[in-house]
Amino acid sequence: MDLLTFGKTGWGDELFYATLMTVAVAVTAMLIGFLFSLIFTPLKLSNNKFLNFIGNTYTTVIRGVPELLVIYLFFFGGSGAIMYVASIFGYFEYIEINAFITGSVAIGIISGAYSTEVFRGAIQSIDKGQFEAAKVLGVSKFVQFYKIILPQMLRLAIPNLSNVWQITLKDTSLISVTGLVEIMRQSYIAAGSTRDPLFFYCFAAVLYLMLTFLSMKLINRLEVKYSRGF
Amino acid sequence: MDFDLMITSLPKLLSAAVITLKLLSASLIIGLFIGFLFAVLRLNKNPFINKFAYGYSYLFRGTPLLVQIFIIYYGLGQIEWLRSTFLWVILKEPYWCAIIAFALNTGAYTSEILRSAFQTIKPGIIEAGKSLGISNKIILYKIQIPVAIRQSLPAYGNEIILMMKGTSLASTVTLMDITGVAKHIVSTTYKPLEVFLLAGGIYLFMTFIIHNLIKYLEKKYSFQ
């Protein structure tokens, strides 16, 4: 247990901050994912063939390629791509992007592909009559979405979104390859300097289990809240 | 875009795809056995056995695959007595460590898929078998198992694709699968975009094949 003390000798405080970093990356990635699904869900539901194609390409490609590869592409290719764009505008200095931002964006794009599928499914399983009734009553498009579709969609989407959250949380471990100090990276550092990999990787597993357990409890509460009246 | 580099790295990546497929098929086969075993244990009435099977699936589904590989590859080597047993022959090879981790991981997911398939079999089917005077054993082998397999095909298809993507983590324990080779090429040529996109294309092609194969099987074994 000496290995886990706080302060200069133990790894307790380091691992504590690393856990916070994991949560921060996962939450940021989830939010970025929501932004992406806000764009791509309407595309997937659109009647326009071209828009539909763009939406489907996004979800198919991202869900068909390993997460690690997407992260490598962003981490190694990201700064190159930005420097190329900057060079068009006459800026030739080296640009390094923050590992937190690259990581969150990469995981966010992956998470977005999964949540897009969830939102699409949820909207499609809302009874058509609901849309028609809103139209008949002369409800504006905005109110129709905000007051009628969204609440019903959320109820259907929350159980599946909880799966997306679990996937996103576990995917953050892959960010460790970029050097960002989250649970996995910190355990790697600690394992290397104490020569006790078994202990630290098992402890990392416990930390992840704790995070998934706590988030399940939280999501169950949300589920109850949004299923009122059903 | 450096198309010459893409053409020269294509054969290297394709030969690495063989390793990816080997890892995938070995872990799927072992994982299917583990999954079947634990699905049966989950359905057992004994609460102790039941909880044990649930604990296994919870542990492996609640932690990242990367942690599981690292525990098996870096962690187990630390145990002194393990090094002197015959197990060490297997555990010192990153190839086998990766397969063990993948198999245990996919086994946990597979057990959940099979369990829910068994639980959703309509009782009427079993009752119909009983009323026709078919023995319990034949009901299990000729009715319950085939129906459960058909029920779990779509979910298992997804699991195969997830596992295929998971094999890319083998590159973190020095194995030269598609991702490992791609990263190696990038580290010598500094052309990440071309190489990683090409590698992604190969994975996407494999996803496409698996997806269509499962669709074909679903159609072939549909109830109509």
Report the CATH topology name of chain A: MetI-like fold
Number of strands of chain B: 0
Q: Nearest-angstrom radius of gyration of chain A?
A: 21 Å
Segments of chain B where pLDDT lies below 50 for 5+ residues?
none
In what range is the share of β-strand residues of chain B?
under 5%
Task: Summarize the largest interface: chains and residue counts.
Answer: A-B, 40 and 40 residues
Supply database-style keywords.
heterodimer; A: 230 residues; mainly alpha; MetI-like fold; 8 helices; 0% strand; flat; B: 224 residues; 10 helices
Tell me what the structure shows:
The complex is a heterodimer of chains A (230) and B (224). By secondary structure, chain A is mostly helical. Chain A has one domain (17-226): MetI-like fold (Orthogonal Bundle). Chain A is built from eight helices and no strands. Chain A has helices at residues 12-45, 49-64, 67-88, 99-124, 128-136, 141-171, 183-194, 197-226. The longest helix of chain A is centred in the N-terminal third of the chain and has 34 residues, at 12-45. Chain A is flat, with a radius of gyration of 21 Å. The N and C termini of chain A lie far apart (48 Å). Chain B is an all-alpha fold and 224 residues long. Chain B has a domain at 21-174: MetI-like (MetI-like fold), CATH 1.10.3720.10. Helix content of chain B is 82%, strand content 0%. Chain B has ten helices and no strands. Chain B has helices at residues 3-42, 47-62, 65-75, 80-84, 87-91, 94-119, 123-131, 136-166, 178-189, 192-220. In chain B, α3 (65-75) packs across α6. Chain B is flat, with a radius of gyration of 21 Å. At the A-B interface, α2, α3, α6, α7 and α8 of A face α2, α3, α8, α9 and α10 of B.
What can be said about this structure in brief?
The complex is a heterodimer of chains A (230) and B (224). With 230 residues, chain A is mainly α.
